[in-house]
Amino acid sequence: MNMPTKVPTKVTKTRRHLTWLVALLSLLLPLAAAAQQQGLEIDIVGGNAAALPIAVVPMPYQGSSTAPPTDVSEVITADLNRSGQFRGLPLAQIIEKPTRGAEVNYPTWRALNQDYLLVGRVLDAGAGSYRVEYELFDVAKQERLLGFALTARANAMRDVAHQIADAVYEKILGVRGAFFTRIAYVTATGTGKGAQYALMVADSDGFNPQTVVRSPEPLLSPSWSPDGNRLAYVSFEGGSSSIYIQNIGSGARELIAKFRGINGAPAFSPDGRRLALTLSRSGNPEIYVMDLGSRALTQLTNHFSIDTEPTWSADGSIIYFTSDRGGKPQIYQVAAGGGSATRVTFQGSYNASASVSADGKKIATAQGAGNNYRIAMMDSTLGSARWSTLSPGSLDESPSFAPNGAMIIYAAREGRRGVLYAVSADARVRQRLVLADGDVREPAWGPYRLPR
Question: What InterPro entries does UniProt report for this protein, alphabetically (predicted)?
Answer without folding.
Answer: 6-blade_b-propeller_TolB-like (IPR011042), Tol-Pal_TolB (IPR014167), TolB_N (IPR007195), WD40 (IPR011659)
